[in-house]
Specification:
Blueprint lengths: L4 E3 L53 H19 L3 E3 L5 H19 L3 E3 L10 E5 L7 H13 L6 E5 L9 H7 L3 E2 L2 H9 L3 E4 L4 H4 L16 H9 L3 E7 L9 E2 L1 H7 L5 E2 L19 E4 L16 H25 L6
Parallel strand pairs: 1-2, 3-11, 4-7, 4-8, 5-6, 5-7
Antiparallel strand pairs: 8-11, 9-10
Helix pairs in contact: 2-3, 5-7
Length: 339
C-alpha cells in the first residue's frame, strides 16, 4: 500500500479548504505548474475558460454520485493517494468520516446550540481557549464540530491534547488524523503561524476530573503558557464557554488507587459507572451551548511581551474571567439541564 503524501506547513495546500474531488486516475497532490516565462511587464496570457459541466439527469443521479464518491474515497485510502500534513492531519478523512460520525452526537443527542462563531477570524491564525469538563473530553470534539460546521469560512479546529491521548492505542491514530497534536508551545506556535485555528483547554485534567459539586467553577489556567504562545504568534485569543458537558457524567467520587494502578489521572465514580458496566459509560443526553466570545487581540504587543510575566498573568486572568462570566450568564439563561 502506498504511503500518503506529507504536506509541509509552508505549502499552500496544507491550508486549502474543501478541495475539489480528483478525477479518476489522476495522481494525488498534483499542483498547477506555472505558465511559460514572460518578459517583465508583459501581461500574462488569459486562461482558457473551462467547459461547463454537463448536467446530470436521471432519477438515480443522487445516490449514484454518492456511491461513486464513496468508491473513489476508498480507492484513495487503499492506494495512498491522499494528503496528510507533518502532524498527521488528514483533512479528507476528517471531513468525510470523522465529522460524519460525531455529527449525530452533536445534533441529535446533545443538541448543541452555537453562539458567536463569527468571532473566530475568517482567515489567519487564532487561539480558542475554552473551559474543560465532563469526565471524558467530549467537549473538545463538540467544539471541533461547531467550528467545522458553523463557521462561515468553513474553518477547521486543531486541538491541543494531553500526553495520555497519544499513548492510547487507536485513540492516538484517530486523534492525529483529526488534526489534534501534543499540547506543547512549539507545536501550537507552529500551527498558529501557519494560519490555523488552534483550540486549548488550560484546565486540563483538573477541569474534566473535578467533582460534580464544583461544576462550572473554573480551575487554574496554569502559568499562562497559552497567552505566551499567542503573543509570540501575534494571533487573537478567542474565549469559549461550554455549558452542558458538566452533567454528562456526574462525577461523585474518584477511585484514586485504581487510577494509579491503571495509570490514569483519575478513575471516575458516577451514578451509573462502573455499577452498570459498559452501559454506565453512556453519557447523559444534556442540552449544550457553546459560545465564542469577543477576540482579545495580541498583535499590538512587542515581541518581547511574551517574556513579561505580569502581562501574561493579566491576560490569562482576563481570558479566565471572561469565560467564567459567560458560563454564569448561560447557566442563568438555560431552562433545564436536558431541554
Amino acid at each position: 500500500m502506498a504511503d500518503a503524501k506529507v504536506i509541509p506547513f509552508d505549502d499552500d495546500r496544507s491550508r486549502a479548504r474543501r478541495r475539489p474531488a480528483r478525477a479518476e486516475g489522476e495522481a494525488a497532490a498534483v499542483r498547477a505548474l506555472p505558465g511559460p516565462q514572460q518578459a517583465p511587464g508583459e501581461p500574462a496570457p488569459a486562461a482558457e475558460p473551462e467547459p461547463a459541466p454537463e448536467p446530470v439527469t436521471g432519477g438515480g443521479s443522487g445516490w449514484e454520485r454518492r456511491l461513486a464518491g464513496g468508491l473513489a474515497f476508498l480507492r484513495r485510502r487503499v492506494t495512498g493517494e491522499y494528503e496528510v500534513d507533518e502532524f498527521g492531519y488528514d483533512e479528507e478523512l476528517t471531513d468525510q468520516v470523522l465529522m460524519s460520525l460525531l455529527r449525530p452526537l452533536y445534533e441529535k443527542y446533545f443538541r448543541v446550540e452555537v453562539k458567536g462563531v463569527e468571532n473566530i477570524p475568517a482567515e489567519g491564525g487564532a487561539l480558542i481557549v475554552a473551559n474543560h469538563s465532563g469526565t471524558l473530553p467530549l467537549d473538545g470534539l463538540m467544539m471541533q464540530v461547531a467550528v467545522h460546521d458553523h463557521h462561515p469560512a468553513g474553518r477547521h479546529l486543531r486541538l491541543l491534547a494531553a500526553d495520555l491521548v497519544f499513548v492510547l492505542p487507536v485513540v492516538n491514530e484517530l486523534a492525529r488524523k483529526a488534526g489534534h497534536t501534543l499540547a506543547c508551545a512549539e507545536d501550537a506556535e507552529r500551527l498558529l503561524r501557519a494560519g490555523e485555528i488552534v483550540g486549548v483547554m488550560p484546565e486540563g485534567f483538573k477541569g474534566i476530573g473535578k467533582p460534580f459539586g464544583e461544576r462550572y467553577k473554573l480551575q487554574r489556567f496554569g502559568r499562562g503558557g497559552f497567552v505566551s504562545t499567542a503573543l509570540r504568534a501575534g494571533v487573537p485569543i478567542v474565549p469559549c464557554s461550554i455549558v452542558g458537558a458538566e452533567e454528562i457524567y456526574p462525577m461523585l467520587g474518584n477511585a484514586k488507587t485504581l487510577a494509579r494502578v491503571l495509570g490514569f489521572p483519575y478513575f471516575p465514580l458516577t451514578p451509573t459507572f462502573p455499577w452498570l458496566g459498559p452501559l454506565g459509560a453512556l453519557p447523559l443526553p444534556t442540552k449544550w451551548t457553546i459560545q465564542f466570545g469577543e477576540p482579545i487581540p495580541t498583535d499590538s504587543y512587542a515581541p518581547e511581551a511574551a517574556e513579561d510575566p505580569m502581562l501574561m498573568f493579566n491576560l490569562t486572568d482576563q481570558v479566565r474571567e471572561q469565560i467564567q462570566h459567560t458560563l454564569y450568564k448561560l447557566l442563568v439563561q438555560r431552562r433545564s439541564v436536558f431541554f
